[in-house]
Amino acid sequence: MTISLSGKEVAAQIEEKFPGSVVESGHESLAVKADSLLDIARFLKENEGLEFNYLNFITAVDYYDHFEVVYMLNSLEHNHRLTVKARCYDRKNPVLPSVVGLWQGADFQEREIYDLFGIKFEGHPNMKRIFLWEGFKGHPLRKDFI
Amino acid sequence: MEMKPAGKYIYADIELDREEGQVIEDLKASSQEPIPDPDRWLDEELEQNILLTTVDALINWSRRSSLWPAICFPACCAFELIAANGPRFDLARFGMEIMRASPRQADLMITAGTLTWKMAPNVRRIYNQMAEPKWVIAMGACAVSGGIFASAEYAVVPGYNRIIPVDVYVPGCPPRPEALIYGIQMLQKKIARRKNIDVRKILKR
């Protein structure tokens, strides 16, 4: 069975490399600062012993005062997983770095999140709506949409 | 000088005359009764083979007996339609088993599935490409009213009748193949009542 890595343990490894980049860490997940997300993602993917070479999915949550983007990572080498979260507090123009360069599967999912939540992913090669049509007003999965 | 008999080459001799006469006698003897009309046999057979009907009834009969559905199944109701088409429910009994990949060869649209606004122009185009006369069966709750997705009204069309005229509504989520077949039979009844020719218009001309 896939082992769930402790967020705290991984957070300690990340803190060693990028001090002050982890916001919060729990049993199965950890939250990181948005501006260091890309570095941490690369570290998680390439560092020996972690090697999260498979991105299960990306999703997003609207907590009214901030958005949280959730990355579910898996390692096919070591058969373990980890949930990484990144928060953005700017409601008008939320921006996060894109992880398409690391995991190609993120392409459509980041577009979906942009479509439904309005979170822009910087560095994405094709950042436009995927489900709704061009010209649609608003982002329907936001809590304040209706 | 011996005279050449004048009539020898002009008049036929009597034996030839008799032969000719015999031919006439034979023909006369065999022609005492009139020859029967060769079309006489038609009378009794035709009585069994000619039906009188109205043009409307004939046109409607031919139209409703071979409805060809266009392939336009955006979502899950399609599987009930496929089941209805399969050997167990056997849509072919009603003369409409041929799914047409080209809408130009189809005259029935069975709208099996949820329709989003992004897909709506394409469905409308398929409908417009179908040749007249054409009919639409709205299959399933989504096609009737948007179904369980009706509350997501920002993306889902609340019923196909917003974009194309619907003839028969088949509710259900999804409807069973029997329900779909019943809906098709309802449509056939509807077509049977259709007036194709306006006699008053023709008489005015």
What does this structure look like?
The complex is a heterodimer of chains A (146) and B (205). Chain A has 146 residues and is α/β, with parallel strands linked by helices. Chain A is built from three helices and eight strands. In chain A, strand 4 and strand 5 (67-75) form a beta hairpin. The model of chain A has no long low-confidence stretch (mean pLDDT 90). Chain B has a domain at 66-192: 3-Layer(aba) Sandwich (Rossmann fold). In chain B, 25% of the residues are buried. Chain B has 205 residues and is of the alpha/beta class. Chain A binds chain B through residues 131-133, 136, 138, 140, 145, and chain B through 116-118, 152, 154-155.
CATH class of the domain at 66-192 in chain B: Alpha Beta
Parts with pLDDT < 50 across at least 5 consecutive residues of chain A: none
Radius of gyration of chain B: 36 Å
Overall 3D shape of chain B: rod-shaped
The CATH level-2 architecture of chain A is identified as 2-Layer Sandwich
Set down the secondary structure blueprint.
The complex is a heterodimer of chains A (146) and B (205).
Chain A: E1 3-4, H1 7-17, E2 22-25, E3 29-32, H2 37-46, E4 54-62, E5 67-75, E6 80-88, E7 95-97, H3 106-117, E8 120-122
Parallel strand pairs in A: 1-6, 3-6, 7-8
Antiparallel strand pairs in A: 2-3, 4-5, 5-6
Chain B: H1 14-30, H2 42-49, H3 55-65, E1 69-70, H4 77-85, E2 108-112, H5 120-129, E3 135-139, H6 140-145, E4 168-170, H7 177-192, H8 199-204
Parallel strand pairs in B: 1-2, 2-3, 3-4
What keywords describe this structure?
heterodimer; A: 146 residues; alpha/beta; Beta Polymerase, domain 2; six-stranded mixed sheet; two-stranded parallel sheet; 3 helices; 23% helix; 29% strand; globular; B: 205 residues; Rossmann fold; four-stranded parallel sheet; 4 strands
Can I get a quick summary?
Chain A is α/β, with parallel strands linked by helices.
